[in-house]
Amino acid sequence: MAGYIGRRIAWAILTLFVITGVTFVVFYVLPTADPAVQRAGRSPSPELVASIRHQLGLDRSLPHQYLHYCDRLFLHFDFGNSFINNTSVKSLVFSRLPNTIFLVVGAGLIWFVSGVTIGTISAVRTGSFSDRALMGSALMLISAPVYWLGLVCLFLFSDDIGKFKLFPGAGAYQDAHGFFGKCWTLVMPWCVLAAAFAAVYARVTRSNVIEAMGQDYIRTARAKGLTERRIVVRHGVRSAITPVVTMFGMDLGLLMGGAILTEGVFNIDGIGRLSYDAIQRGDLATIQGTTLILAFAIALSNLVVDIVYAFLDRRVRYT
Question: Is-contact 316 241, C-beta < 8 A?
């Protein structure tokens, strides 16, 4: 296992190198807009544009710019400065990162636990009314867009414009204080972000548990006299949950930079909002910084999933 983890870490570092090259080409070579012109403002003089290009290092050759960027990134962990306001990209990213982590991890726990639980219940009660009701509800949640579901929840349950005034509305997270205060403001964002994922996980878990419960080792466990609950939880769910863990790791990594809709609807200053604002303003340095953070999150989540595999399924071995 130690050797495997070492190889996976090496591959993750190599992947980050490749991603830096791809993002450099996409954001510095392909765009037609000149960042120096955008930063100079309206009707800039050629001298001002040339001065800004020299200040940003855009007058150097592309290989030199790329090597300089890699040197700052990998040796000094420096993402550079924003092309718009000259603020450190690292400070911008890490000031927003805790908000996104809080949002994604909380929603992830909700959708994983609820999805696996609902899927297991449906699998055990296949064909019953509860099974049809749960899977029908899951299909509805999968079909509901995140932004639409968020707006509906605000209209129904927010304490400012809602009909029932149960939870804090949009923008409340920024003004909340303390861990539990912030948790209370994230109840609706968590549920909105988790709804579609929980529905997908429920359907996948249901099909996997049904398949696992028909295996020979389940019949052997019943022949030994084990209780049905122990058979389902210790043998059926444990065997069926492996693909779900893969999905969970990938989804958490992707949502680190992809929770832009939820952050936008509920006015949460996270990585998604930062990426959207940077794209709107053509801030290439900030876009590249958030892209690398997302790549790191995905690489880390993949590594964690591979390690968890060995504990969930004893048949998995790494050489």
Answer: no
